Amino acid sequence: MAIKVIFVGPMGAGKTTAIRTISDFDPISTEAKNSDRASVDKAFTTVAMDYGELTLDSDRKLTLYGVPGQKHFDFIWPIVANGALGGALLLDCSRDDWQESLLYYVDSFRDLADTGSLVLALNRAADEDGVADSVIQLCEKIDLALPFFFTDPRNKDDVYLLLEALAINAELDSELYGDMH
Amino acid sequence: MSLVCDELRVTQMQSIKSYGFESLEREILAKQIRTISTRMHKSWQYDGEGKDGDIVLVKKPTQVATHTIQVYVGKQPIDQSLPFLESPVRMMQLISLLEQLTPSETSVIDSINNLITNSRHSQFVIPCKFGLVGFNTKDKKLSTKQRSLATFIKNLASEPGEQFSLKHAKSVPADCTWEFTASYRTVAWHLAKLQGLRKIKDLSQGQSIKLASWPRVTEWDPTPLNFKLATLVTRQFLPISQIARLCKTSEEEVVSFLHCCRACGITILQQQVKHPPANQPRHVVKDKESLGWLRNKIRTVFNYGH
């Protein structure tokens, strides 16, 4: 039994790091030389997907997928998202365009967002209260009350908290709608 | 299905009933009280004829005039020093009377919120009975010489709300050091929690509620129940009874949670009808055992206490 969780967000937001932090093994990555260093200054970036696993017991595991952040790879997003328990949208709040990214990615994964299966992981937020107020305003604008957490993708507890939010949401789904399926 | 959403007014509703009023008089009174409720800090609601309201307006002849309305607070007639109402009821007279019956309750939460958000000074202190409270309006934090949040909250709650106004503000003493600092929303949450299970009378049966934004419960009050309530109440409209059942708690706890959210500035939405559920899941993870394993494995800040 495998439960799929996806990590989405713009390039350089910390998706690969988050998977690496909790995966049982070093994630299998498909990285290539970054051709867009003007946007994000890192040498390599994910071009197909990252993959990691978190073993729950001998029969159960969590499979962790990181989708490529660049928008020209958006055709792959619904394929990776299919059948997922939920997703974590990582955002680098030190970037000027993080709010535009939030709206763009929430719109791209609206199916997940509408069912509470998308959580926001806010990385590198210097002014947490200010960022929180902005998130609340943005979410009210798009009529969603998305769970959001200040996350350091290198911190295991921070990444686990994202999984916890998704697990609770799935349990509530199960209790709310279990009889209907 | 009605999709009209209104911000829930969590102020305490007070019931007004009339006794001996004609049908037309009741209609007029109901309109007047609706209007008054929009103007006053406390919310009033006209509940028709009867003698069991918080305020009861009894129409009967007295020595003053043949059509005087005697006013009861509960089962007690009001203090004779307050004016009687005349029949027909004049709205300004009723407002004046209600204001006198309910002296303004400036809450500590509202006052602190007002100071933090509206003050032009970035740092100042307010002297209280238990010592100085430091305000940092830039970081939106409160500081105290108390050693724990629990003691701080308990002492704050015993202060009159009026104390937390700019007229009492002073400069931070040069030698001032603090023992404890917390975000003002954390303080607001715990003050609201201490106030207990405040009734929300305008949540009628069958109404569903939803939070307009995520409450940062992992910072304000990280408990498994709060996390579960926050997850459920932010995703869709549900009646309080169903929220309580799904989260395996009491309706009073749900109301208390909502009250705390409201104190932290989270808007509560309500909807009249909620059938069928608005957001169907994309899929249902039927294997609840796997979810249990997952949560057992990850053991977050809540240390798997669910």
UniProtKB/TrEMBL annotation, chain A:
Q: Where are the transmembrane segments?
A: none
Extent of the signal sequence: none
Name used for this protein in its record: ATP/GTP-binding protein
> InterPro entries from the xrefs?
Gliding_Motility_GTPase, P-loop_NTPase
Query: Highest taxon of the source?
Result: Bacteria
From TrEMBL, chain B:
Q: What is this protein called?
A: Uncharacterized protein
Its domain of life reads Bacteria
Provenance organism = Halioxenophilus aromaticivorans
